[in-house]
Write a structure and sequence with these properties.
The complex is a heterodimer. In chain A, about 35% of the residues lie in helices and about 25% in strands. Chain A has 9 helices and 10 strands. Classes of the chains: A alpha/beta, B mainly alpha. The interface between A and B is large, with 63 and 53 residues. Chain A: It holds the Pfam family BCA_ABC_TP_C.
């Protein structure tokens, strides 16, 4: 527990009208840990994610990334600070080729806050292109480099989004249900990829329904229900926690 | 879009330059081989190439680009009046003023996207148009139009004792074929610059903005300055076109800023193929051809063409076709535009690409072709791309070959 805190969610509450979507959520995520946030539908998982990085202002509390306040910042600023996000439905540049997608992600920390490169040109062989190609090949997309990203299968689109996130070498990787709607074989492939990321020392927050994924990857788990943290701890502690079983009763078997 | 090699781009530029140089020969057989019309082809080609940098790459549809064309024209005429009859200062001033106006309009308009952006640009352009007729008459000379006069001061010309009756480039009069070749050279330069922009990281960023703004934000890009730069560049292209327009016809009127002129460049770009390099020029050629050649036909000429038919039939044919030529040229153009948009949404260039069988739908190989996938795990065979003609054709061809053997 001596590692520095990467993401500090400080007593955050969020109210929509009269509904308490989040009440007093407090959470610390430390460097190198893989932290899963689970909970039944409507528990506030997505709201928590949007409060952290989606530009949603919390009603109370604040969110800090390595000491820098994230609340109220625009998505591009949050990414520039070192947060990469993977969406539940893949968000990629469908009209660009696969390798261009990754190049965009690679160039963003140099050019993203606006640096003009009007006349310099590059092809697949330039340095960025080479690194993008290598990153794609490492994760099994080497056969699709010059295809339009929009033509990839759903599983490959997700994989591409993962590559785009990881080449940015983020301080924090946020995954929103990375295996939703996937076949078992593809889920396992994704788990393998994420395990690689984890072994490289990346800090990961994963929101997931699939308990197989959660228990394969998570170092620590936070359980949300009704906008509150009802349990937090190591996977073994969560498994046996009666409150968690109760929250999930009729939803899923833990 | 795939990365064309440097060599291919260079070949494209050379080919384009050759086409421009041979313009008079190429357009002679279709009755368009005279300098006044070819000058218009070249000038509006520049306008459309610039418009395409904004609309083709970012997808932001400006409905007010004629404002920049008009400002460029006025700036050029003022340069002819006050500075020199030479084209160079006129172009520099026109591009500068168009750029400043684009900065102002773009800064406000780009706060919105989609239809709201289009409406904002339209509103600004109409505002410029109305101001040119009202409060700005001291600058624009209102309805009469701004013209170059013999006794204008022209300070630089006065210093050098240079006298030229009409706008010129280093003594070369901007009329007739000389005027066409000057405009053509500028067109080739403008085209070359647009290739460079398309292939640059900046161009890729613009295409990414068109593709997915949400992903842009979460990938760390602040899209606004990129969009504003594209807007200013395309405004400057319009200013350049405006300056050339003033040079070949030194009478600037506000009608160049009217919304119909803004609409025309949208039509040119979409007709030719938005987002393609050559499309805007092709579209410009089509529209200017219809506007100038089709509109010049009349019933007498039609009757002459169909003189081989029996009289009654000929009269009927002429009265039907007569609706599509002369005053009715816009009807023909409208039908053509409808056909292109319905059957070739990518414009004429898409048709050309299909003909050349080079249509760049992604070639998705069958999944077994990528050995890397096996390192990760089994692949899902789902969501095969719906419009993958190429691979389907190739697969069915393969199947047929197998059946035959």
């Amino acid at each position: 527990m001596s590692k520095p805190i990467v993401l500090h969610i400080d007593h955050v509450s969020k109210t929509f009208g009269g509904l308490d979507a989040l009440s007093n959520v407090h959470l610390d995520i430390r460097e190198g840990e893989t932290h899963a946030i689970i909970g039944p539908n409507g528990a506030g998982k997505s709201t928590l994610l949007n409060v952290c990085v989606g530009g949603l202002e919390p009603t109370k509390g604040k969110v800090l990334l390595a000491g820098t306040e994230l609340t109220g910042r625009r998505p591009f600023e949050i990414n520039q600070l070192g947060v990469a996000r993977v969406f539940q439905t893949p968000e990629i540049f469908a009209d660009l080729t696969v390798v261009e997608n990754v190049m965009m992600a690679m160039l963003s920390h140099r050019d993203g806050a606006f640096r003009l490169r009007l006349l310099s040109r590059f092809g697949d062989r330039s340095e960025t292109g080479l690194r993008a190609t290598k990153a794609l090949t490492d994760l099994g997309l080497g056969g699709h480099l010059n295809h339009l990203a929009g033509a990839l299968s759903r599983g490959d689109k997700r994989r591409l989004e993962l590559v785009m996130s990881v080449v940015q070498q983020p301080k924090l990787l946020l995954l929103d249900e990375p295996t939703a709607g996937m076949a078992r074989a593809d889920t396992n492939a994704t788990i393998d990829i994420l395990r690689k990321f984890k072994e490289s020392g990346m800090t990961i927050v994963i929101i997931e329904h699939d308990m197989h994924v959660v228990f394969s990857l998570a170092d620590r788990i936070t359980v949300l229900a009704g906008g509150r943290v009802i349990a937090q701890g190591l996977p073994d502690e969560i498994k046996g926690n009666p409150k968690v079983v109760e929250a999930y009763l009729g939803e899923e078997q833990v | 879009m795939k990365h064309a090699s440097k060599l291919a781009d260079f070949a494209l530029l050379i080919g384009f330059a050759v086409m421009v140089a041979l313009g008079p020969v190429i357009f002679e057989p279709i009755g368009a081989g005279y300098p006044d019309l070819l000058q218009k082809f070249a000038i509006y080609g520049i306008f459309a190439i610039g418009f395409n940098i904004l609309f083709g790459l970012t997808g932001y549809l400006s409905f007010g680009h004629a404002a920049f064309l008009g400002v460029g024209s006025y700036a050029a005429v003022w340069s002819f009046k006050l500075v020199s009859m030479d084209l160079v200062p006129a172009i520099l001033l026109a591009v500068l003023f168009a750029g400043i106006l684009a900065l102002a309009i773009g800064y406000v308009s780009l706060r919105r996207s989609g239809i709201y952006f289009s409406i904002l640009t339209l509103a600004f352009a109409q505002m410029c148009y109305n101001m040119a007729y009202s409060v700005l008459t001291p600058i624009t000379n209102g309805e009469t139009g701004l013209r170059v006069l013999r006794d204008d001061p022209r300070v630089v010309d006065a210093v050098f004792g240079y006298v030229s009756p009409a706008p010129s480039l280093f003594g070369l009069q901007m009329t007739g074929w000389a005027g066409y070749y000057v405009c053509g050279a500028v067109l080739v330069a403008a085209f070359g610059l647009s290739i460079a922009v398309f292939r640059s990281p900046f161009g890729m960023t613009l295409r990414a903005i068109k593709s997915n703004q949400k992903r842009m934000g979460f990938t760390g890009y602040n899209t606004r300055p990129f969009l504003l730069t594209a807007f200013i560049i395309s405004g400057m292209y319009a200013g350049l076109a405006g300056a050339l327009l003033a040079a070949v016809d030194p009478l600037a009127g506000a009608e160049r800023m009217q919304w119909t002129a803004s609409g025309e460049v949208v039509l040119m770009t979409i007709l030719g193929g938005a987002g393609t390099l050559l499309g805007p020029v092709v579209g410009t050629g089509m529209i200017k051809y219809f506007e100038n050649i089709f509109s010049s036909y009349n019933d007498v000429q039609l009757a002459a063409i169909f003189s081989f038919l029996p009289d009654d039939l000929r009269d009927n044919v002429v009265s039907v076709l007569g609706m599509f030529v002369g005053e009715g040229w816009a009807l023909t153009l409208g039908l053509l535009f409808m056909l292109v948009v319905i059957f070739l949404p990518g414009g004429i260039m898409e048709g050309v690409m299909r003909l050349l069988r080079l249509k760049h739908t992604p070639k998705v190989k069958s999944l077994g072709d990528s050995p890397q996938r096996d390192a990760i795990g089994e692949s899902v065979i789902e969501d095969m791309p719906p419009d993958d003609h190429t691979s389907r054709t190739r697969e069915s061809a393969k199947a047929m070959r197998e059946t035959a053997s």
